[in-house]
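Tutorial handout. Part one gives the primary structure; part two gives the three-dimensional structure as tokens.
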Amino acid sequence: MHLLVPKAAEEGGFVGPSIAEFFPDIILFEGTPFAMNRIMMLRLLVVAVLVLMFWLGTRNMKIVPGRFQTLIEMALNLVRVSIAEDVLGKKDGTRFLPLLTTVFFLVLGMNLTGVIPGLNIAGTSVIGLPLVLAVIAYIAFIYAGLKKHPGAFLKNSLFPPGVPKPIYVIVTPIEFVSIFVLRPITLCLRLLMNMVAGHLLLVLLFSATQFFFFSAAVDGAFRAFGAGTLLFGLVFTLFEVLVAVLQAYVFTLLTTVYIQQALAEEH
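Part two.
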């Protein structure tokens, strides 16, 4: 079956997206620990753009802000007010704000590369980056709990107060898996799968558009199919922009909620 795709391609047939798109060829430093492919390069590009954008927006702050400073302040206030302070309160929200702001804009920037012409793939569509971000969120959650409740955090997490002691045989393994295993896994996979699915869907629609317009037999019906897949492709591109923003928001919000739970007084 794997021989059918190349044969179809040679004959001008339709070739759909494959998982190979998430593992492009090495471009720089092949054979070294610093080997870089297209996805790694666009990740570095996103980081550079974010650093430049916030540096330009905050290097010369004015009491009466200009348009660009206003835009930067609105973006920063979204994380500060709507996520950090709303969930953690002013004191703890300010304390964890640098981490939460970095996570939000890094995830957002990496997600949006999936709909930018010329880049066309999200930096979060390969597991490495979502996994690193999930581990950072996990470490922040554990650190917050141990810092605030050094003697009780782990005990109360694994042995919730008020539960009859014989029931701990069932409750403790469930709590351990739920809190210390599933949280980073679900954070990672939720972000990863949304970006993978969105990319494959867009590639499918625009590949079908190209096929119907340029490779299929010259026929009005095929052109009509091409117009349909093009329309759906444009609609789903806008939908992917929404998904990119929502996934950045959800990832940051869940990180904040986990930190808040670690700081809660019952621990």
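Part three, for discussion. Residues 17-263 form one domain. The chain has one domain: 17-263.
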